[in-house]
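Write out this protein's structure.
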Amino acid sequence: MPPTVCVAPTLLQQQDAFASLRHTQTSSSLEFDFDFHNNNANPNNPQSPSTSAYLISQLANLSPQTTSFPLPPSSSTSLLSSSHMPQCIVVSISGGQAAGKKTVQAAIAKRLKELSGGRLRITCLSMGDFARRLDESNREEARSGRKDMDCIESYDLDWLVQTIRKIKENEPEVKLPKYDILKFQHEDEEVALNPTNDLGETGPTDVLIVEGCYMLCEKRLVEMADIKVFVDLNADARLGRRVVRDTEERGIPLDKVFDQYLRYGKRAFEGRIEPAKSRADVILPKGVEGAAIDLIALGIWDDICAKADSVNNFSGGLTAEHERKALLIGKTVGEKQTISIGEVDLERFYDPI
């Protein structure tokens, strides 16, 4: 299927397009024909449940005039009680070291709280908290920079998968010890993960947002995620952010930062992290800039409302059950942004772990 859509960078057209691209639940086709200038959808090419919202989510680099979006009808918010809430929705955020994954995670969580009037209970996890436990000799190697702590093998993926599964299944008393990145060890005290919303209501997690470099590199993690985001920051920007973070926040000498990046970080990104981005549903070339965060959050909220069966005209969203499709940013021509739609082979690039 050839690349097809041209997008005009105005907020009104983005909102109209988002409203018009309501999907039909019976179709899993990627075929579509949509003109953002005329706002006319071709009825012969129905939207798949995932394609329409993902397409709009790619507008991260359009520099909108404002990021204010209309809320869903108030009735949907009032119906979000424990008896109406659907199963926990899992959002995974991947990208290179220091790409801004935690920033995107926090921005999505904040926007979801705004959209729900503070009713959603949101849990945020970091893959870094699931680092493998090391003995003293290995911790000393890690502190000295002789041990590769950027590789996927440095994380206990079984532990992470089990934790996500427990949260999705609403198991009580899910706890996690805090990880001290400077000491390369976990603290003895464990913290309960049962979240409380802004209204003071404690209960099961409604939305789980997990960030980590390798969220797209392990088959189980990919299959457990309803929405998969990749923060695609360029190498120079990531290195600059890593230098600032490691020197100022972690007290690592500058020469050691560069040495660890060249020996471990660069290899990990080019060998495993970047190839896996073809598995993402949404690729963010600018992180939290632009309209992408608003539109991703709207898609999640849209899906929650649809699953809760609280709004008839606000159905759809980002969490279709069929095979995911990735949206890859194309080239910019004049004032229009070309967006390419490509199918993803889910068996490619998986690590045999």
